[in-house]
């Protein structure tokens, strides 16, 4: 069914085509607008602008729907594994057992990082934020694998880079934690699966074996699945933008890591725990902090609340909130911060300011409570988000390349000074 939009401008009527998506989303296609009308559109922050068409993830912010390649997030979180979801996102289909085993073993075989890269950790300052380390290390991978610079054309080279990224991000992350606590690094073990291997590299010590707890493994699998993709969010759009210049995949992913670090994006999960600890330290006066979050003159925001797209519950937050109770109970962890988070949510969701602006807990509001219960420090929370989001970033980059999308280059409306002549400094 074709549909058009009419634009009346300076007394002239223009017909613009309307693109309709699988889930009946409608978009006015303005690719010829400037040629037709001499006008561009202006939408700071792209709140109403679609940058692309995509077959990877569908989310409906009004009804709280999230699906990866059509599969509801609730089913994947309950029944799938992180590597199976990574395959689904990157290659478009749930793998057969043989395909998954092959994908998993290829990733296992690339978990080591070049011994020369180990030296980088000696140079980083002790308190270096692990997101800064991760961005530097992932970008440096392109210097150790120069053949990756040609990945845009050769599918096999793309796959090799995908295996290397999926495998090495865990090692890079775990080693940044070991660096931060002054413990010796732990090498990957091929006999362990993806999540077990990460946990072992994080927590095993030369003095004692790390006992892998299936409850912890399952909790991490679920968290990584829930973070795996989220259509055109800030970091995924950054990966697509950088990749559109034909920069290699390692560099495009490193750019995504840096975009995710921001406290308004993936950095929020660390901010949430710091906010809750601050409220707890301040005597737990929730109403005081909710009022501060509402006060336009106060820079304080309720971290982990609100979302550009979800104007209803973030389905991931609902799943994580439930998982919090299960995991903490099974681990025998009693964390007052969880009770504080629930109380804060209750107060906020009854407050007109939050109701009117449709501000609900997002994926970052509860995730840190589980990471904390597992023993992951808050500086590593956004690193965990990056590990989870990697397959989504790869899928978005791959789709942009496959669709032969043009280099991203938005327009602007200039509001600076009109033409003027240069004056010598003596005359200024
Ligand atoms: C992620 O895009 C994605 O999909 C991201 C993500 C993913 O999976 O990739 O889901 C992951 O980034 C989740 C969001 C994590 N960030 C936070 O939790 C930080 C706190 N949240 C906010 O900063 C904010 O809600 C954003 C950044 C998430 C969304 O900002 P928008 O869409 O630009 O909305 P806005 O800032 O224009 O807010 C609209 C109104 C404003 O009030 P008014 O000017 O209309 O009076 O709501 C207010 C805002 O002041 N508001 C908040 C608030 N969030 C929005 N007020 C208090 N506390 C908040 N958290």
Q: Can you describe what's shown?
A:
This protein has 428 residues and is mainly alpha-helical. It folds into three domains: 4-50, no CATH class; 93-261 and 386-402, Orthogonal Bundle (Citrate Synthase, domain 1); 268-374, Cytochrome p450-Terp, domain 2 (Orthogonal Bundle), CATH 1.10.230.10. 52% of the residues lie in helices and 7% in strands. The protein has 18 helices and six strands. The protein has helices spanning 33-37, 73-79, 82-91, 97-108, 115-123, 130-144, 155-181, 194-203, 214-226, 234-243, 249-260, 268-281, 286-294, 315-331, 336-349, 352-356, 363-374, 381-402, and strands spanning 3-9, 12-20, 26-28, 57-60, 65-68, 71-72. The strands form two sheets. It has a three-stranded antiparallel sheet. Strands 4-5-6 form a three-stranded antiparallel sheet. Helix 6 (130-144) runs antiparallel to helix 7 (155-181), helix 10 (234-243) packs across helix 18 (381-402) and helix 11 crosses helix 18. The longest helix is centred in the middle third of the chain and has 27 residues, at 155-181. The protein is globular. 40% of the residues are buried. It binds s-citryldethia Coenzyme A. Residues 230, 233, 264-266, 268, 293, 301-309, 357, 359, 362-364 line the site of s-citryldethia Coenzyme A.
Produce a short descriptive summary.
The protein has 428 residues and is mostly helical. Helices cover 52% and strands 7% of the residues.
């Amino acid at each position: 069914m074709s549909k058009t939009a009419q634009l009346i401008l300076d007394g002239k009527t223009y017909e613009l085509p309307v693109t309709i998506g699988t889930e009946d989303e409608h978009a006015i296609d303005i690719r010829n607008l400037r040629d037709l009308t001499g006008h561009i559109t202006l939408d700071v922050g792209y709140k109403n602008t679609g940058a692309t068409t995509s077959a990877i993830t569908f989310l409906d912010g009004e009804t709280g729907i999230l699906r990866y390649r059509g599969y509801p997030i609730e089913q994947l979180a309950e029944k799938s594994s992180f590597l199976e979801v990574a395959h689904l996102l990157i290659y478009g289909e749930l793998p057969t057992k043989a395909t998954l085993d092959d994908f998993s073993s290829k990733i296992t075989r690339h978990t080591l990082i070049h011994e020369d890269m180990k030296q980088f950790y000696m140079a980083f300052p002790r308190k270096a934020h692990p997101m800064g380390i991760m961005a530097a290390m992932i970008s440096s991978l392109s210097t150790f694998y120069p053949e990756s610079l040609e990945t845009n054309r050769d599918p096999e080279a793309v796959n090799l880079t995908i295996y290397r990224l999926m495998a090495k991000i865990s090692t890079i992350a775990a080693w940044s934690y070991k660096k931060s606590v002054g413990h010796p690094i732990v090498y990957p073990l091929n006999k362990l699966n993806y999540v077990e291997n990460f946990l072992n590299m994080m927590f095993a010590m030369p003095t004692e074996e790390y006992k892998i707890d299936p409850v912890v493994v399952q909790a991490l699998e679920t968290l990584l699945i829930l973070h795996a993709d989220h259509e055109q969010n800030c970091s995924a759009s950054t990966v697509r933008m950088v990749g559109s210049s034909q920069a290699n995949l390692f560099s495009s992913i490193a750019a995504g890591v840096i975009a995710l670090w921001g406290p308004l994006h993936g950095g929020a999960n660390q901010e949430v725990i710091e906010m809750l600890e601050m409220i707890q330290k301040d005597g737990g006066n929730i109403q005081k902090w909710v009022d501060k979050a509402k006060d336009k003159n106060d820079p304080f925001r309720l971290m982990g609340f609100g979302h550009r797209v979800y104007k209803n519950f973030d389905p991931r937050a609902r799943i994580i909130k439930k998982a919090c109770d299960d995991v903490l109970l099974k681990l025998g962890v009693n964390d007052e911060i969880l009770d504080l988070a629930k109380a804060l949510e209750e107060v906020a969701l009854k407050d007109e300011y939050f109701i009117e602006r449709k501000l609900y807990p997002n994926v970052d509001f509860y995730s840190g409570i589980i990471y904390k219960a597992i023993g992951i420090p808050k500086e590593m929370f956004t690193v965990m988000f990056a590990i989870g989001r990697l397959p989504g970033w790869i899928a978005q980059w791959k789709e942009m390349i496959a669709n032969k999308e043009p280099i991203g280059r938005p327009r602007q409306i200039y509001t600076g000074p009109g033409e003027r002549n240069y004056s010598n400094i003596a005359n200024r």
